[in-house]
Amino acid sequence: MQENYPPGFTYADFAPQFTAEFYDPHQWAEIFQASGARYVVLTTKHHEGFCNWPSKYSWNWNSMDVGPNRDLVGDLASAIRKSTDLKFGTYHSLLEFFNPLFLQDMANNFTTNDFVARKTMPELYELVQRYKPDIIWSDGDWEGNSTYWNSTNFLAWLYNDSPVKDTVVVNDRWGTDTMCKHGGYLTCHDHYNPGKLQKRKWEDCSTVDKGAWAYRRNIKLSDIESTQDLITQLVEAVSCGGNLLLNVGPRRDGIIAPIFEERLREIGQWLRVNSDAIYSTRPWLFQNDTQQPGVWYTSKKNTFGESVYAIVLKWPRSQDFLLASPQPSPQTTVTLLGYSQPIDWSKGKLGGLELTIPVIPFDQMPCQWAWVFRLDKLNNV
C-alpha cells in the first residue's frame, strides 16, 4: 500500500473504484447455466463488511450508496430466476474485520454481542425477506461460538417462520462449535475433499484460481486449474456423496474473466454428454475402483434396477480395460455415454468386468476429458 497508493489512503477509499460498469447479470446467468451448475451462490458481504445490496444496516458502505450505485444482489437474483433453472444462494460473512461494534465485542471476550444484535442478524433477516434465497452460505464464524452469533434463534425462524422455510438449505458455518458438525450440509473447511464416502451431505468449496478467491490482476495461466483437474474434483466429490461449489472472482468492473468463463463453459460441455453420471446420482458400493486408478463410480436407480457409472479420468491405453469392482451377470450391458455403439466386455479371470475399448477417431470422441461407461444389470448392485 505504501509503495502504490497515496499517503493516508484507506481501505474505504477503494469503494469508489468498485464501479461494476460492465456488470451484466443476465450474461452471468447465461454463463452459469451453460456451466451445467444447479445452483449459484453470490457473495453478498465478505469479511470487510461491504454489502452488495442497499442494506439499511450498512449506511454508505453498500453497493447502492457508493461504487456501482445499484443492487448487485437483487439484479442477479432476478436474472437467475427469470432466465435459468438454477437455485439462487447468498454467501454472507457473520464477522466484519473493521467494524467497531465487532471489535468491542472481541475486546469483551464475546461476553457482549452488540455487533450481532445491531448488524449481522438484522442483515441476515433483511437478506432473507428481500431476496428469498434458496441457500444461505454462512461464513466468518470462527471468532465466536453459535451462542455469540445467536445462530439458533435465526435458524429456528428461518426453518419455521421465514418466507423460505420450506425450501431453504444452509451450510455448517454458524459458530466455532458447528463447522463439520451441524448444518443442512457440511463444508468442514475450504477445498474440503475427503476422498471417501461421508455419512452426511457435504460440499467441496474450491477455486478456479489456485491462489485466490478474488480476481487478481497479476494472475498467470499456471495459476488456473485445468478443465481436467476441475472435472476430476467434480467427479471425486459426487462419487463420495458431495457437491462442488466452484469459485470465480469477478473483476471490479463486473466482468468474469474470459479464462474463468472458458473453464465454466468447458465443464458444461462435459456435463452435456455425461450428465447422467452426475445429476440425481447416489454413491455406489465402491467410490473408486479397487484396482484401476483414476476410476470413480456413481449410481442411479432406474426401471430395471440400478445403473452404475464408471467415470474414467484418463482414456485407457490398452484395448483391454479391467474394472475390478463391478461383478457382471450374463445380462450385463455396457455403453459409453455419447457413443452410439455398445461396448463389448468379458468377465475378468479373477473377477471383475473387462471392457474392450473401441478405437474411436479423435474427432468422434464423445468428450475431451473424462469418459463414462454405463454398466447395467450387474450382480453387485
Automatic annotation (TrEMBL):
Record-linked Pfam families: Alpha_L_fucos (PF01120), Fucosidase_C (PF16757)
A cellular-component GO term for this protein: lysosome
Superkingdom of origin: Eukaryota
Swiss-Prot/TrEMBL catalytic activity: a neolactoside IV(2)-alpha-Fuc-nLc4Cer(d18:1(4E)) + H2O = a neolactoside nLc4Cer(d18:1(4E)) + L-fucose; a neolactoside IV(2)-alpha-Fuc-nLc4Cer(d18:0) + H2O = a neolactoside nLc4Cer(d18:0) + L-fucose
Example GO molecular function: alpha-L-fucosidase activity
GO biological process: fucose metabolic process; glycoside catabolic process
Location of the Alpha-L-fucosidase C-terminal domain: 287-375
Annotated site residues (May be important for catalysis) in this chain: 205
InterPro entries: FUC_metazoa-typ (IPR016286), Fucosidase_C (IPR031919), GH (IPR017853), Glyco_hydro_29 (IPR000933), Glyco_hydro_29_CS (IPR018526), Glyco_hydro_29_N (IPR057739), Glyco_hydro_b (IPR013780)
Residue ranges of every copy of the Glycoside hydrolase family 29 N-terminal domain listed in the record: 1-275
Swiss-Prot/TrEMBL keywords: Glycoprotein, Glycosidase, Hydrolase, Signal
UniProt-listed Enzyme Commission number(s): 3.2.1.51
Subunit details: Homotetramer.
Stated family: Belongs to the glycosyl hydrolase 29 family.
Described function: Alpha-L-fucosidase is responsible for hydrolyzing the alpha-1,6-linked fucose joined to the reducing-end N-acetylglucosamine of the carbohydrate moieties of glycoproteins.
Protein name (database record): alpha-L-fucosidase
Organism for this UniProt entry: Littorina saxatilis
